[in-house]
Amino acid sequence: MRANYRLQRLFLEADLGAHAEIEADKNQFHYLAHVLRAEEGLELLAFNGRDGEWLMRVTFPTRKKITLVAVEQTRPQPARPDLHYLFAPLKTGRMDYMVQKAVEMGAGIIQPVMTRHVQGKPAKSERLEANIIEAAEQCGVLSVPELREPQRLEDILDAWPADRHLIFCDEGAESQNPIDALRAVEAEKLALIVGPEGGFSEEERALLRGLSFVTAIPLGPRILRADTAAVAALAVIQATIGDWR
Description:
The protein is an alpha/beta fold. Helix content is 29%, strand content 27%.
């Protein structure tokens, strides 16, 4: 069932269900009353990543209180996408963009990875969570991706699950076309890792290329910024072996 983009969407932490009545917190009150200028009876869509999407009606029990009343479920809760997205932190503004695009492109797990040439610092989890939720609100996503804590590349690879295949963007790949390499991947469970602006070190490239569960792909003849590479790689994976097939 397609999302309804005519109505405003709001992420709520509270449980959603028939006859639920949820009091807006301070931030939600400000957003509804002063940004949307909501009036009594306004309808919007709410989700929490667990209970599907619900049509909610705005009520004002008092001048300083807003309650959202569940009317009906509009979409059931889908399973979380199984694509894992791993990335080396970037500078704040571009990292915000990259995380938002990962949500839009179907990532189910978002994992910051510390590599040798990382230029950005790990962003506060609250900021990344806010970007994840904002993207989900704007794009009709119901299964909010899980944000994991930053880890060193070597530690992640040491504990890598045997049933998940890892694709990494290798600017040193000999070819320019990623399609053939991707079509050779037979695993159903996938992950993508995109390196920092300076790329992976030679030691990291050698480590990744030496692992049986890793496939290296190029992204064409042009040099891409890390955030652009992330969107390009996610798109080609989804189109070739992902959920766009």
